[in-house]
Structures are given as structure tokens and as C-alpha cells.
Amino acid sequence: MTDTDFQHNYLLENEVVFLPEERVLLAKNSNRIELTENNYRMLCCLLEGEVSKKKLMEKIWSEQNGAVSDSCYYGQVHLLRKALIMAGISGDVIKTIPRKGLKYNGVYAFCAPEHLEDRCREIEMEHIHQQSINPRNDTFYDPEDLKRKIKKISRIFVVSMT
């Protein structure tokens, strides 16, 4: 499995942006959760559809010589669920199918570059709004400052299509 196998960006649960190229989840609260190599591969496989345990183990650990233990497999499932929870998605979206494998049981969609940019802007606006109304935060954002931040964000999340 190579990085070029997954050309699409995803919107998970209509809230979290998954950027396979960068191996990150962009959470609604502006957290940037970096996925491990194996978690990235596992999530990509799950977004392709229901996957058997054997197939997942082959795809994820294909470059490693030797056998992969069940505990290693279950550990990766646990870590991926934990990363999703940190991004604000229930870990239950990864459904274990007894004696078969795993399935992504949530809502997801491919992100067009324009939609991705809009969603990233919304995420940043929500984060800025939360900061500005937080009584513990002494920072006040004026409208011009918000415009500058949005311009900065829109430059960061430009996705090229090849």
C-alpha cells in the first residue's frame, strides 16, 4: 500500500476531515490528530469497505517480515478507535464483525477540494468563536483579525488535483 493508493480526502461523520496524504484527522475543535503509519493504513482499508482480519493484517504489515500477532492487530484497532475519539468521533464507528474482521460503520464522504476548504474554514471559525466566548480566555477577536485568520487557513488547505 502506497500513499498514492488513496487520492481522496474524506469527511467523516460530517465533522472530521481525514487527509490521507498527510495522515491526519482534522477535528472540529481544531485538533490535528496525527495517525501512525499502521493506523493510517487501517483507516484507509476500512473506508474501502468491510475487511477481513487476514486481509487487514496483510495490507497493514505487508512490508514487515515474519508473522504479526493477534495482540498487535487488536492493539492497532484500539489505537485507531482512540484517535477517532480524540477527533470527536465515537470509536464505535469501527465495528468488529465476530470471526470475520472490521467495518467502518459510520458516515463518510469524499471531499472535493472546494468543500474541504469550506469545511476547514468552518472548523477554524467555530474554534475562534469558542475562544472568543470562553470566559477563561482574555483574548477578543475583532472582525479584521478573523478575516486574516481565515485567509491564512484557506492558503494552508489548498488541495491540488493531478
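Second entry:
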Amino acid sequence: MGEGRGHNPLKLVPLGPIVRSGGTAMSLLRRLVALLVLIAVWEVPVGAGDTPAAALERLKAGNARFVKNAASALPIDEARRQAQVEGQSPFAIVLSCADSRVPPEVVFNAGLGELFVVRTAGGVTDKAVLASIEYAAEHLEASLLVVMGHESCGAVKTAVETKPGSPSMGPNLDALVAAIRPSFDRMAASADLAHLREAILANVEQEVNDVLSRSAIVRRLVTEGELQVMGAYYEFSTGLVRFSEPVTLRGEPSGKGGVAEKHGRVSR
């Protein structure tokens, strides 16, 4: 799937002869432009070497452009696609909801190969999600994991509104609700917007702690300073993503949700 930490080569893709028999000035110009794009990709690796702080600043800067409706033109043409053939080096991992209104690459104004994105309803973790995160953090050397909830999350709303003893919605939806519910079970039973936002933020905290308590690889990378983990909340109404402080650890987990000293709590 890719190389591990310390070895993530970037290679130029050969363009072939610049001038061919019957070539035109316009075709030569196109080839020169493609060559310049490839050189730019070569000189500025997508994510290799980014510190967690630098990765966070890139996310914040991209989101600021998105909020201002001033998104940068992204290199998503053939040259960038070809540059990705040999491998990937994303600078950050984003675990987010599968909601169609929450595409992380758009929200953070990121191009091909810049983000390693894992999406499930409600951002709920399972073994496949954990394996994906571990691969991106350990082998692709992404230095930041953001667990992002969002305004008006339908998965969390369903969990809030589904009371114990409610009729089954089917085994899969029942399992999703059961995974989300513990994050806010102690909160007042209400589906108003203020309560829903609190429930969404509580779910983000739970998923942050789920990742940390269930993945020894993630805990090790955090302890070694190779990876930072934080929660986030995306507002549809403003386009803004709010981040928590980076999580700090207090040792080995004693149970579900028991590993983080700071829990990825996003400012209310």
C-alpha cells in the first residue's frame, strides 16, 4: 500500500520528447506548462515532513479560504494525477461524517493527495476505520488526525430521538444508534438545536477517545510526538471549522474513553 516512516519517495513522471514530428507551437507550450506543474509538485511535496502544528495551520488556512469564498485553484489536472501514481503523502487525516454536505477536501480547500479522509455516518469508528487511520499515520506519515463532527448531524439526531425500547430500524441502524448513544446518555432528553449541538460535540469527544483507547499505534505515535489528535466541529451556517486543543495522554487506557487527559473537547 505504501512505504513506512522515513521513506516516501517522490518521482517525476517522464513527459516524453518535448518536440515530436509534426509538433506545433501550441503543443510545445502545453508540454512546457505540464513540465512546470510537475516541477512545482516535485519541489513542494504534498505532506512529507509537515509537523503537527504546520499541518493544523494548513487546514486552518484552507478553511479560511473556503469561508471567504476565496478558495485557491487546486492542481487536480493530469500532471497532479500522474504525480500521485508512485504513492501518496497526505499531511493530515480527517475522520468525519459521511454526510454529503461535509466533504473535507472542499471544506479545507485541499487538493489531490493532501488529505487522507475516512468517512462514516456520525464519524463512528470500527476496526476498518482504525486500520485506515493507523495506515495513514504510521505508513504515510500524516502528522495530524482531526475527528470532525458537524452542525445538524443526522446520525446523532437519530440517536438522540431514538428512545430505549423504540421499534427496531433494522440491525445496522440500530447498531449505529447504539454506538453513538453512550456519548450523550447523561444529557437531558431533548431534541432541540442547542441539545443537538451538545450531543454532536459529545460524540466527537467519544470518537476521539475511541480511536485512542482502541489503537496502540495511534497512542504510540502521539506519545512520540509524531502525531497530534484533536476534535473539530464544522458549521454549515458559517463554513467555519472550530478545533479543540490537541489531545494529551495520561497513560494506558483503563477502558473505553479513558485514555485522554484532554478529550478533544471543542469550545462550546
